[in-house]
């Protein structure tokens, strides 16, 4: 059995329910530009590949690149102020992270969310429970490229064979596999069980408690 000493998490849709705040900022930016509003479910389907891609998907088809850039800037300015108006941890996540820490497991967040927002939110909600946060930075490819994942593992001092990735989307599954990690897909986030299975998730968890059971039953846990 593989020995696991680190657990890497996606952020949006995995450990934090950020959807309403994302939707609010998307619609604020769209409204400022005179574009049609998007439903929460539409925004749910747009997230996962970073904020620029979120805005590109949200604006009307055929929108000029300069207009997309302006919309993106409006979004960023609004979201920077309102990123945790409604955001909250999913049920059981704090207990999960406390459990992992008690077992000697290092923790990280690797996300396509802009680094400034990711760092602020992990500090706000999980200051003592997340060891490393790596968000999207200029010049660094987004997930599913494993560059950010590799950065997090290097900072933790952990090899890929001793870590597992937890995420809610096909992007997370591909990221994990591109970095040679097993992936636990979670069903409470922004994508469906079918999406996770189609992408090749190694395990599926329907609750935070189930993540612990998966780890205990399939790996040697802790230092």
Looking at the structure, the CATH topology of the largest domain is Rossmann fold
Count of alpha/pi helices: 10
- The unreliable regions are none
Instruction: Give the helix proportion (percent range).
Output: 40-55%
Which band does the percent of strand residues land in? 15-25%
Major sheet: 6 strands, parallel
Strand order of the largest sheet: 6-5-2-7-8-9
Number of DSSP strand runs: 10
- Shape descriptor reads elongated
Overall mean pLDDT score? Answer: 96
What structural category arises from helix and sheet content? alpha/beta
Distance between the termini: 14 Å
Rg estimate, integer Å: 17 Å
CATH hierarchy: architecture of the largest domain: 3-Layer(aba) Sandwich
CATH superfamily of the largest domain: HAD superfamily/HAD-like
CATH top level of the largest domain is: Alpha Beta
Number of domains: 2
Q: Provide the succession of SSEs.
A: EEEHHHHEHEHEHEHEHEHE
